[in-house]
Every structure is written in C-alpha cells, then in structure tokens.
Design a protein that fits this description.
The chain contains ten helices and 19 strands. With about 425 residues, the protein is an alpha/beta fold. Strand 14 and strand 15 (about 285-290) form a beta hairpin. Helix 1 (about 35-45) packs parallel to helix 5 (about 185-195) and helix 2 (about 80-85) packs across helix 3 (about 90-110). Bound molecules: flavin-adenine dinucleotide. Flavin-adenine dinucleotide (FAD) binds near residues 38, 57, 69, 242 and 368.
C-alpha cells in the first residue's frame, strides 16, 4: 500500500510535541527553525555557555532536514568552474574547503554524540545522461585535480556495471569523499545533542513577529513572547513573512522522494553494488540511493512545494523515472512517497550574514545535509566571536530578485520548471 508518509520517520522516534516546555522569558540567542542548521547552531551556542532557545513552527526536525535524500556531498550546487569565474580563485577554494569540512563536521558530531544514523563514506556517483555529459565530467575531473587538488575518478561507459546496475547512463564520476546517512535519525540525534548541551527546544512555537528593541529583540511566537539578544534565522525553504527581507531572497522549490519495499539482497546489490549516493547530470535531476534494502528515489517531479496533489503526482512520475533507470524494479512495490521544500537563492549560492543582530544561514539549494550542520556550527562560532563578516559564505552578495520582481510567492516556478526541461532536452 502506498502511503503519503516520510519513510525516514518510520525508522526513528522523532521528537514529540506532547510535553511542550514553557518558553523562557529571555535568552542570549533565539534560533528560528529546528533543522540541521538551527540544531547544530543551538548545540554549539549552548556548549559555549549561551542561553539558547530553538523555536519551531511545527515539530522538532519537521522541515527538509528529516525528509531529504541523506546525501552528504562534496562541492556546492554550482559547478566549481562557475564559482571560480564568479568569485575568484581564492574565495572559491575557501568555499570548496567548507564543503569538505562540512562532511568532517557531520562525521565528528555523529561520533561525539553517538548518533546512530548509518553515516558512512560511501562516495557519490554523478552519472552522465548523454555521451556529451561524460565529456563534461572528464573536464571536471581534470579541473578539480588541477585547481583544488581534489581527486575524483571517472567511470567509462563500458565499466558502469561495477557502479550501478543500469544501462541508462553514459559513464560517471565517483567522489569517494561524500557520504550518506539517515536524515531523520541524524536530526533527531542533533536535537538530543542540543538539549544535552543545555538548549531548550520549543515545538509548535511559530515565530509570528520579530521586533528590534533598544537592546534586544522581542520575539513573538504562537505560544508567547521572549526576548533575545540575537536571533538566528534557520528556516531554509520554509522562510516566511516574519522575516520578509529574507523571504524575498529565497525561492521555495519542491523535491519529492519515493521508497520501495525492501528488496531481495541480491537485487539491491545489483542496483548499487557500492551503496553510492547517486544522482544524474540533468537540471531536472534524479537522485537515489539504497537504505536498508529499499530504493530511495528522489527528484524534482513537480517544482511547486509539497502538498497532497504534488505528492500524489510525484509518486507516479518518480516510479516511471525509477523504472527507466532500473527496469528490474518494474514489479517492486512503492510503499512511501513524500515531499519537502528546498531553499534556492537567486544566485544558487548559500548565504550567511547578519542584519543588525539578526543572523541567517540560508539558500542550500539541495546541498544542506552536511552544509546545514557545518554552517550551523560555524555561524554560531562567528556569532560568539563577533566576526561573521569573515565567514567565507558571508563574502558573497546575497541578491534579491532581478528588478525586485518577487515578494516571496514564486509565481515563476512553472516557467522555471519548463525551462529546466527544455535545457535537459537541448544540452
Ligand atoms: C526532498 C528533499 C531531498 C533533499 N536531499 C538532499 C540531499 O540528499 N543532500 C543534501 O545535501 N541536501 C538535500 N536536501 C536539502 C536539505 O534537506 C536542506 O538543505 C536542509 O535540510 C536544510 O536544513 P535547515 O535546518 O536549514 O532547514 P529545515 O530543515 O528546512 O528547517 C527549517 C525549519 O524552520 C521552520 N520554520 C519556518 N518558519 C518558521 C517560523 N516563523 N517560526 C518557527 N519555525 C519556522 C520550519 O517549520 C522548518 O522545520 C533535500 C531537501 C529535500 C526537501
């Protein structure tokens, strides 16, 4: 039976909203949003002695952090060649290093906090949908070795069976540094770690108004008001009108995932012999991996954020895509489908910074599993040190919409979706 339910949530006890602790009157930092970013920041702040409250509109870990593909990837959304062109060699190198450090950060947190989330450096496989994509991957491998001293391995078309049980691709690139985990188990573990460090977590406490007073922020929530010396906005694709200036810079985009029934061991091994985190080269890309014998297969099946309709439609589209890649799964039952919202900035880069005491870390563009934890931690450190401006991700201008044609309601998504489909067809 197909359930509209997040598969990962059936693998762990997510933090409940049964006993809601009262809000404190006053804190050092109020963190808005309880995903990887907010919880990692809260853990670091509390460990350093700051009084911190995490305010979450829904339940703890409810957002993208417990719904994603669980791929902890090297690099940024934009190819590093583009990043060098836009921001120069020096900054590009620092940003790429952040992406490597982000996976180390996840590994370290998982070890220190004993989080049972299956984290493993299984590597990622970027598969070419067309022969000319493989030429581009060759260039990329050479470029990454030369410019970043980062070695990735090419898999020629004739050797793909060692990496993936599919004839759909024309070669691939393997990066052994990337890893995978169960995102709901990771976010639930982070929540426990933040609490153990002394942070208080408040589910069902949507922030409805943020006012800057003389010395402190007045933070109004659905469950009462508190004062905070500073605020960290960690609301990703769910950024709303309470922080309007940020909402206008973030485009929420839906991404959807299906999970099959548990497959026979030999079939699972055939599909992904090395248990890689796999994604393809398209704009409208598919990403997939195994977890506990199930195929977890995601894609941007609809551009609009999740609702009952987009989720139901996505189940069928994703099943079709999955069977195109893996005809062996034609008769496999799809048991789960769910969706979540990604946060894209107009330049497809992640942005951190401060606006008069209001800090933020947003715009992960589908690369927030490792980066969320890393930026949560490093932004918290920068808040304490008072040097957020020196953070590599604070060096980039955070653009708004061209001509200011966006107020937080993404009217252009159908056009963007169609445009990406056209690009996949011609490129
Ligand atoms: C389907 C899907 C697949 C993905 N796959 C991958 C992947 O494989 N690898 C990867 O690196 N990234 C992936 N991502 C992206 C990744 O999940 C996100 O970048 C990351 O989880 C963002 O974490 P966060 O803590 O910043 O935000 P979130 O986890 O989204 O948390 C934000 C929270 O803020 C809360 N909030 C919003 N407004 C308010 C308010 N006013 N008051 C209080 N709370 C509020 C929301 O309720 C939400 O819980 C995927 C995302 C999706 C949706």
């Amino acid at each position: 039976m197909l359930k509209q339910r997040i598969f990962w949530h059936d693998t762990v006890d997510m933090p409940s909203d049964k006993d809601l602790p009262p809000l404190p009157d006053r804190v050092g930092v109020a963190v808005i949003g309880s995903g990887f970013t907010g919880l990692a920041a809260a853990r670091t702040l509390a460990q350093r002695g700051t009084r911190v409250a995490v305010l979450e509109a829904e339940t703890i870990g409810w957002g993208a952090s417990s719904r994603n593909g669980g791929m902890a990837l090297t690099g940024l959304k934009l190819p590093m060649q583009t990043v060098i062109k836009k921001y120069g060699r020096g900054l590009a190198k620092r940003l790429f290093q952040c992406s490597l450090d982000s996976i180390d950060t996840v590994e370290q947190i998982v070890r220190d906090e004993k989080i049972d989330c299956g984290f493993a450096r299984t590597g990622h496989l970027l598969a070419a949908n067309k022969p000319k994509h493989f030429d581009a991957l060759k260039d990329e491998a050479e470029f990454m070795a030369k410019e970043f001293n980062h070695n990735v391995r090419l898999v020629p078309p004739g050797e793909m069976q060692s990496e993936i049980g599919s004839d759909a691709y024309h070669g691939a690139l393997v990066d052994e540094v990337s890893g995978g985990l169960n995102p709901a188990q990771f976010v639930a573990g982070l929540a426990r770690a933040a609490e153990n460090a002394g942070a208080t977590l408040h589910a069902r406490a949507r922030v409805t108004r943020l006012t800057r007073g003389e010395k402190r922020f007045v933070v109004e929530t659905e469950r009462g008001t508190l004062e905070a010396e500073s605020v960290l906005v960690a609301t990703a694709g769910y950024t709303g009108p309470t922080t309007k200036s940020l909402q206008k810079k973030i485009i929420p985009i839906g991404s959807f995932i299906i999970a099959t029934e548990k497959l026979p061991d030999d079939l699972a091994r055939e599909l992904s012999p090395k248990n890689r985190m796999i994604f393809d080269y398209k704009h409208y890309l598919n990403y997939f991996r195994l977890w506990d014998g199930r195929m977890i297969f995601g894609g941007r099946a609809a551009f609009f954020p999740e609702n009952e309709n987009t989720i139901a439609r996505s189940a069928e589209i994703l099943r079709r895509e999955m069977v195109t890649v893996y005809p062996q799964l034609h008769d496999a039952k799809v048991e789960y489908v769910w969706g979540g919202t990604l946060d894209f900035a107009f330049d497809m880069m992640t942005h951190v910074g401060e606006d008069a005491g209001m800090f933020y870390s947003l715009g992960y563009a589908g690369h927030g599993v490792a980066m969320g934890a890393y930026l949560g931690e490093t932004v918290a450190e920068a808040m304490l040190a008072g040097n957020i401006r020196e953070h590599p991700f604070a060096q980039i201008n955070f653009p708004g919409a061209p001509l200011g044609l966006y107020d937080g309601r993404p009217w252009f998504l159908p056009f963007a979706g169609a445009w990406h489909k056209i690009l996949d067809w011609v490129e």
